[in-house]
Every structure is written in structure tokens, then in C-alpha cells.
């Protein structure tokens, strides 16, 4: 009888510990508190809960700490440019189904637009709000509702990247070609000098750099553009060597509206149709 009892205790202990063993051995895990997101080992179908992403009450407005964490998420997504993910919003069950679907979609949109605003390729991200249709805990308790209010990142596929846009300007016969270069934020543009004389690249009066000459060897000067805008340049000596670099933001148009019911809720491209009941989320 004693041996049987010991066997039952050992079996029970193994069953309790087995989920921990699986979690520790997993190569794709949700980030622990205070830790950045790591997509190493993740594959299509994996889903990670982002507990560090939170919002103001009854709102899709990200908290300051959430933005700081999402900066790390953006860095990881840019490091893995072929990964496509779904940003998924979930709520608790307080309030109507329609309200919660709208709120969760709003929150998923806010995360997506924040990530794209930091330079993540919009094609890497889709946003979906599920309301309270996919609970992971009992909505009858406060702790359960807190667990159900969450943002998840699900890996949904792989992107085939388009060919890169031109990032070089060629200087030859005292002209710069192309005379206008359109690039996204964060691009490093390189000027290649094929003339038999040096050129100074200056931006609206501010000296850039001299591209020294080694005839036909293509000496270069490079500059990274981290801010959107239009940058006009020319050689300070040879005026025909001139052109424009147009730097576009990662999101060409960022539209925000205010909810007619909950003031201060920021949304993007969202048609507000919320109820006016004062729910707590």
C-alpha cells in the first residue's frame, strides 16, 4: 500500500511539472516581465502574449511604458523582415459583444500603427480584435478578467520581400542621376563620383562632405536619413551637380479621430460606433 501511494504521488508530481518542462524547453516564448521580445525559434502558428502592452481605461491609447516595450518589439521585427505577424486584441466580458470587438480592434490597430510609425514594414503586420470570444481565464473573477485583457502577437506567415529601391546617386559629367531619389526613413544614401574632379555635397548651405576623385573609380560619400522630409543638395563649387532626396515616413498617412463617446481615445482609420455605457476595462 505504501509503495502504491508513493507511485501515485510521483505520477501526480510529474503531471504537475510537465507543463513547466515543456515551457522551459520551448524555443518561442512570451517575453517575461522586464525582458524584450525575442522571435528566435518562432514559426508560423506560434503566439506570444505581450503583457507589457497596456492601454488607458476604456481606450486604445497606449501607455508610455507600452510604447517603450513596443520600441523593442519594432527592433526585433525589423531584424526579422520576412516574418509576418497578427497583432490580436482581447478583452474581458464586461460590456456588450459589439463594444468589446470594437475596443479590441482599436487596441490592435494602435499597436500596429505605433510599430509602423517606428519603421516596421506595414506589410509585416495585420491587426485583429476578438473582443471576449477567446478567454484564457474565468471572467467571473477580477484576476481572470485581468488575464483576458491582453495583446497577442501571432506569427501568421512569411513575406517575400520586394527588390530594394535605389539608394545611390551617380555623379558623372557634372550631373547627379537620378536628380530626385525617394527613399523610406532610415535609408543610407550613397553618392558615387565618376568625374575626374572632386565634388562637395552640401545641403541647403550646410556642408556635407567632399567626394574626392580617383578618375572613374567611383569614390563615395554616404549619409543616413532618419527623419522624413525633402533634402536639397548641390556641389558648393559645381552648381550643376544638384538634386533632391525625398525621405518618406514608414506610414504615408496617419489618420486619428476622437471617439464621440470616450474622449481622449485615439484611433486610426476607425469608424466609431460604440455604445454609451460606462464599462470598466
TrEMBL record:
Q: Where is the signal peptide?
A: 1-23
Protein origin, superkingdom: Bacteria
Q: OmpA-like domain: from which residue to which, for each copy?
A: 42-159
InterPro entries reported for this sequence: Bact_OuterMem_StrucFunc, BlueCu_1, Cupredoxin, OMP_bac, OmpA-like, OMPA-like_CS, OmpA-like_sf
Q: Which Gene3D superfamilies match?
A: Cupredoxins - blue copper proteins, OmpA-like domain
Where in or outside the cell?
Answer: Cell outer membrane
The keyword Iron-sulfur is assigned to this record? no
State if Signal is listed as a keyword.
Answer: yes
* Name used for this protein in its record: OmpA-like domain-containing protein
